[in-house]
Amino acid sequence: MQRKGFTLIEMMIVIVVIAILVGMLLPSFRGTQDEAAEQRARSELRTLATAVESYFIHNSNTLPANLTALITASPRIVSVVPDDPFRSGSTDYSYAVDSNGVYYVLYSYGRDRAVDISGIATSGNLTVTGVASEDIFVTNGTGS
């Protein structure tokens, strides 16, 4: 009488093939996650820029000192400041205003998860410590 079924070797070969396929797919899945996070950051930064401009109009042409001012403003402009998807934990997007209170920059750390933008100058140019093109940002300055 002959028994039908898989041998241990055949089962191990199937498991190894599945493991190889999963190993090939994981890096592309990570890239897809980063693309989605980048699109989310761009969208949320545009929304926050609109909120900052609204704050400016409703508060005697003054930019908010920080992003939480958008929540406490009267009238309230946003109910919550979203978190930067490229920073660990619950951390808001970064925000800086020049010393004259004219220019602002809102930025995310971006895919490299390291900040390169450190602020904005009174000329409207970004203050950069690395490669700003790796960060995602919105500004009313020149952005260079």
What does this structure look like?
By secondary structure, this protein is an alpha+beta fold. The chain has a domain at 41-139: Glycoprotein, Type 4 Pilin (2-Layer Sandwich), CATH 3.30.700. It contains two helices and five strands. The strands form two sheets. The protein has a three-stranded antiparallel β-sheet with strand order 1-2-5, with helices on one face. It has a two-stranded antiparallel ribbon with strand order 3-4. A hairpin with a 6-residue loop joins strand 1 (94-97) and strand 2 (104-108). The longest helix is centred in the N-terminal third of the chain and has 51 residues, at 8-58. The radius of gyration is 24 Å and the shape is elongated. The protein starts with 7 loop residues before the first helix and ends in a 5-residue tail after the last strand. The mean pLDDT is 88.
Features:
2 helices; 38% helix; three-stranded antiparallel sheet; 144 residues; Glycoprotein, Type 4 Pilin; two-stranded antiparallel sheet; alpha+beta; single chain
Average pLDDT taken over every residue: 88
Radius of gyration: 24 Å
* CATH top level label of the domain at 41-139: Alpha Beta
**Span of the ends, CA to CA:** 80 Å
- Cα shape: elongated
Low-confidence stretches: none
Main beta sheet strand tally, sense and closure: 3 strands, antiparallel
Number of helices: 2
Strand content: 5-15%
Multimer state: single chain
> What letter string, H or E per element, gives the SSE order?
HHEEEEE
Tell me the structural class: alpha+beta
Determine the CATH topology of the domain at 41-139. Answer: Glycoprotein, Type 4 Pilin
- The largest sheet has its strands arranged as 1-2-5
Percent of residues in helical segments? 25-40%
Number of strands: 5
- What would CATH call the architecture of the domain at 41-139? 2-Layer Sandwich
